[in-house]
Amino acid sequence: MADLHQLPRASRVLFCFLTVVAVRVMRTEPSAATAGPPGKIAVIGAGIGGASVAHFLQQHFGPQVQLDVYEKDAVGGRLATVTVNKQQYESGGASIHSLNLHMQDFVKLLGLKHRREVAGKSAIFNGEQFVLEETDWYLLNLFRLWWHYGMSFLRLQMWVEEVMEKFMRIYKYQAHGYAFSNLEELLHSLGGDTFVNMTQRFVAESLLEVGVTQRFIDDVIVAILRASYGQSVVVTAFAGAMSLAGAQGNMWAVEGGNKLVCSGLLKLTKANVIQATVIAISLHNAEGKTFYQVHYETEEGQGSSFYDIVVIATQLQDRKNNITFQNFDPPIAEFPGTFHTIVTSIIHGYLNSSYFGFPDPKLFPFANLLTTDTSALFFNSMDNLCPVNISGTFRRKQPQEAAVWRVHSLHPLEKHQLKILFRSYYSVQVKEWQAYPDYESAKSLPPIVLHDNLYYLNSIEWVTSSMEMAAVAAKNVALLAYNLWYQDLDKIDQKDLMHKVKTEL
């Protein structure tokens, strides 16, 4: 190549221009080593995280990529239903917040509908009496909160709204193609050091700092967290804020069951769903390229397949899935922390309203019961369920009628406990879930990137666990995989993103 200073001026200008264009092309086009899209991608888990990431991966890499989704149980994971008297009821994840934009988009994309809301009042029970009761009058509810707890509920609302306002930035970042290689970077881009620190401290500490009283925490905050996470104030501040946002109303569900989002996304992507248990992932290198061999078991026996990219969308803590990692150097470390078991009992029967201080069942006004952290109580919450398909003429069962109730507890209900809650019952269906992380059991956040093209989607649960957070993590992993595959490093872990997205065209 000729020395630049030996060229005429016009030629030097043209040369510089072409050099700039070439550099820009090199930064935006696929690298020579990975000029084309990956051939095969594996997703392990077909819950909302696995179904979402399959959808987003196809969205970014294109329909020509083969997507294999491994699921040992039913599609939907912790989104599930049970059947009572030929009607289906939610037994897993039940509610979606109105600000959950990915879930909103999925419903529109799949042609699903919001389930018609059937109003029902809530109350908080301490084992002897109700410490707080909801009425049909909004102003009266506000007055009661003020009378019992002063300005605590307003301070709580302001704190939650501030957290949610900053969290909503993630949708703008993702719309511009930005991704994060670890949870700390993701949180810092949304709320700075404050958000990162909120994963390392308990929610009660943060609430006391903003002026929420201890009495309000003990009576109300604990009841909400017991209902949502099965844990009390040991929940981290960030997870607590997200849970408390859901308690402020504006919740919805999918007509026909929330699990339809999972099956719908997998059908839309034409993913190959493999009914199998993944037992190992081994690393291989050939001709300078990395491959991952997924080993699995089916009813017919064992098998394996090779993939360019693997996304793990199931829990790795507690050795719950017993997936071993082979040939990795350095080896992939074990994941600290345990998961919290929640027992969900779906009971068709007659509520024993006398236990709650209402001898006449016709006068019992509540559809949702939360509880304080009292040793005498053996359940966390219970609610009068509506079926997943609600007709225009549907009405909620009257308190004196046999209804379907969902009871959350830490342990399976014994017969004498069932008799305390119900005068009589027709059926009891029990499901034990390792539903949420035990937020007190891990002091650090797990990684997203386990190896070059091996990702752990469910690490997000240690920030907070919900349907929408799984979808947010799925979008992040899909963008991260895409940006790393094509070496578009300018789209990963960028600082000052609020300023960048404002200035982008």
TrEMBL record:
Main enzyme class: oxidoreductase
Keyword Flavoprotein listed: yes
Entry keywords, A to Z: FAD, Flavoprotein, Glycoprotein, Oxidoreductase, Signal
Residues making up the signal peptide according to the UniProt record: 1-22
Boundaries of every Prenylcysteine lyase domain copy: 132-494
Cofactors required: FAD
An individual GO BP term: prenylcysteine catabolic process
UniProt xrefs under Pfam families: NAD_binding_8 (PF13450), Prenylcys_lyase (PF07156)
Molecular function, one GO term: prenylcysteine oxidase activity
Keyword Isomerase: no
EC number(s) from the headed UniProt entry: 1.4.3.2
Homology family: Belongs to the prenylcysteine oxidase family. Belongs to the flavin monoamine oxidase family. FIG1 subfamily.
Protein name: L-amino-acid oxidase
Species per Swiss-Prot/TrEMBL record: Salvator merianae (Argentine black and white tegu)
